[in-house]
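note to self: dont lose this again. the chain is below, predicted strucutre after it. 501 aa total, dont forget to put it in the shared folder this time
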Amino acid sequence: MSAFAIILIIVLIGLAGWIAGARRASAFAGREAVGGPRGPKLHSRATYHGAFVFCLAVVPALVLLLVGLAAAPGYVAADVHNHFPASALDADGKVPPLSYELVNQLGRNLDLLPPDERAAASAMTLADLGPVFQRRGIPLAGGTEDYMLPLALRADELSSTLRLGLAGVTIVLAAAGALFGLSRIAVRFRARNNVEFIVRSLLILCSLVAILTTVGIICSMLFEAIEFFRHVSPQSFFFGTVWDPRFAAAGSGGASGQFGLIPLLAGTLYIAAVAMLFAVPTGLLAAVYMAEYADRRVRSVVKPLLEVLAGIPTIVYGFFALITVGPFLRDISAEIAGLATGDYAPFIQGQSILTAGLVMGVMLIPFVSSLSDDIITAVPRSLRDGSLGLGATRSETIKKVVLPAALPGIVSAILLTASRAIGETMIVVLAAGVAARLTINPFEAMTTVTVKIVNQLTGDLEFNSPQTLVAFALGITLFAITLLLNIFALYIVRKYREQYE
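---
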């Protein structure tokens, strides 16, 4: 039984309990009317009694379902690990992650077979199962061995059993919660208070999602980064100027390479700075025009068109840089060099800091303009009217009154946009290349931290070498930089924000 079907059954039980609870409460209200005006009155309306029954039926069952669905894969993985043959373990006596992934993939492929063929698979070998998969158009991953088939079947059977048992327990719990809720309905039962308490608790839980997500992100990267720093010293990582993560298996003589952060950090900040130099003036001037000069009809057309840029996928910007902007800058530089020296060798590479910065700046314009426009528009009209009444022109009012009043919010918007620029990946991959180098020439190629994170995590590598674990060290560093920028932006807003009546 799928999780969606289980949730649907639980919700239906809750709705049935809601209807029954409301009717039961209405029956109490009918008795009160017969008893006369001196009879006791319901503390809460009938709909609150029904909502109380619904909450008791649905909330505990859904919580148990979510916990069970989260814990079941870990239990299945532990069981499969315990049944791996000794010959398939590595030198440390552990299950190789690649072998376990092959077992999972084989199990997912077996689920695609019809029930009769899947039942017959338990008596087959991989050689017999291959034609069955081929006939069904199901791929069989390379490296799959015969001992993996019983493990995959065992994992699938255990998962099905756990899912069926979890479905039964949650449905029974939902029914029991509905019956208990119905038994609590009484004339003076505070159903409204209980429903409001449950809803308030759910709202608090939802508000904690952002905090818990941040903590989870930090922990997931921090533990792997600590493991990386057991192999590589923090000093060589944070202050190293050479990025050369060589792999011992690639003939590097057993050397683990060099993991200097400085070239990647310099490329990240350099490209982000070029992008901000283009995006901030353009976006800010666009915001000033839309907020102060454009009439309502023009604003209703220009603002949505400008914000459309924010919805374009970054890979499209990358293609634009690779196919249009990069070759254009290269050809223009060749023409300029030819006119100056007679040698038509371009001095701007197709993949360069300038190319990536310009295209990324175009992508960032909607962020700067939209945030700045909202901030400028929020400046009270009375300030403008007072400045104009004293004889200032519109441009003087904007420069002397509006922009200073909106400056903290604009600075915050710029810092948030800078965080967005630092975390960009696809544009840099296609527009600036993957060369990790230190240069001040904006016409040459550089790369960023995010590009190297992708490079180090792609492929069939296991998460037990410095070459792979360095991605988590890079990730936690990038996270710290963007977090500091966001904190600084909040500090600027809170410190310099003016409160207007």
